[in-house]
Every structure is written in structure tokens, then in C-alpha cells.
Amino acid sequence: MTPLPPHQLPVTVSMFTQRFSSTPLGARLARHLAATQLHAWGIPYRTALSDTATLIVAELAANAVTHGRVPGRDFELRLTHAPHVHLHIEVSDTRAEHRPPAPGEVPAPSPLTDTGRGLLLVDALADRWEVVDRVSRGVALPGKTVRAELDIPPAGELGPPSTRTVAPCKFTCAYGRC
């Protein structure tokens, strides 16, 4: 076995995959579990990276529930963490015919509408994102996957605790307001 060049360090990639019901509660759970998993991977709660990733998960999960819902079908969240390299976020749903616009082509909503800003946030916050056909283990499945990627800053530079205030969730669930 040949040693790695000095500028390349070995990286252990961690993955988290979970399916959720295509309901507002499912979207909320996806957001909460993503924040918990990031913290377990060493990306502390309330840092800029954690808040950005959690916001992207929340927006993609809300889109999957709102626009990609097929009755009786779940949506899937997949997080892939390569320490000091990137954080990869994927949300897959089973509705193939309702595809979002490509990166850079997301239209601005009317100032008076209450919706239509989720992908604008993803476009602004993610370092890269795309929409692809849904595939699992090399097999094409019905639906689509929206992928977003965040570059991870060097160690010790995850950012200060976030000062972003989180607006209350617009969904009411069995446990009260989110």
C-alpha cells in the first residue's frame, strides 16, 4: 500500500439516513434529528455551520412534504459528513413530476406572497446544490433527490455561536407548537 501524499489526510466519512412520514411532523423531526446528528459528529449546536445545515434540512424537508408528497410514501433524509471537508445533505421524495428549478434559476417570489423562499435560502446558503433523479444502491426509484453541500471550514473555525433567532414553526403538531 502506498502512503498518502503529505497534503492528503485520511478521512472517515460518517452517514446518517432516516425516512420520515410526509407530514409537517415528519419535516420537524428531520430538522431536529439533523441538528442532533451534527452535534454528535462534532458540529456543535448553535454554531454557524450547524444552524446553516439545519436551516437547509428544514427547507428541503418542508418542500418534500409540501410539493413532493405522495400519499402513503415517506421522504428520506441523508447526511454525509467528511470531517474538515464537507457536509452533504440529501432529501428524497417519491414525486418525480414536480421538480424544482435548477440552481441559479430559482425565481424570486412576489413580495406579498407567504411562500416560495425555501429554495432561495438553499441557493444562498449552500456552497453547491442540485436536483437529481432518485437512486438507491444503483437502482432507479420513482422521485427526485435534492442535494446540498456545505464546505466545512478548517478545524476550530466552525464559527461563533449563532445569533440567528429561529422563527416559530408554522406547523402545529400533536405536541403543540414546535
Structure description:
With 178 residues, this protein is an alpha+beta fold. 25% of the residues lie in helices and 29% in strands. It contains 3 helices and 7 strands, in the order βααββαββββ. The strands form 2 sheets. Strands 1-2-3-5-4 form a 5-stranded antiparallel beta sheet. A two-stranded antiparallel sheet has the order 6-7. A hairpin with a 3-residue loop joins strand 2 (74-82) and strand 3. Helix 1 packs antiparallel against helix 2. It is globular and about 50 Å long. Mean pLDDT is 83; it is low at 164-178.
What overall geometry do the principal axes of the alpha carbons give?
globular
Proportion of beta-strand residues: 25-35%
Q: Could you spell the SSE succession in H and E letters? A: EHHEEHEEEE
Q: Output the radius of gyration.
A: 17 Å
| Distance between the ends | 52 Å
Spatially, the strands of the biggest sheet line up as: 1-2-3-5-4
Mean pLDDT: 83
Instruction: Count the DSSP helices.
Output: 3
Binned, the helix content reads 10-25%
Q: Could you describe the largest sheet, including whether it forms a barrel?
A: 5 strands, antiparallel
Low-confidence stretches: 164-178
Q: What's the count of strands?
A: 7
Structural class: alpha+beta
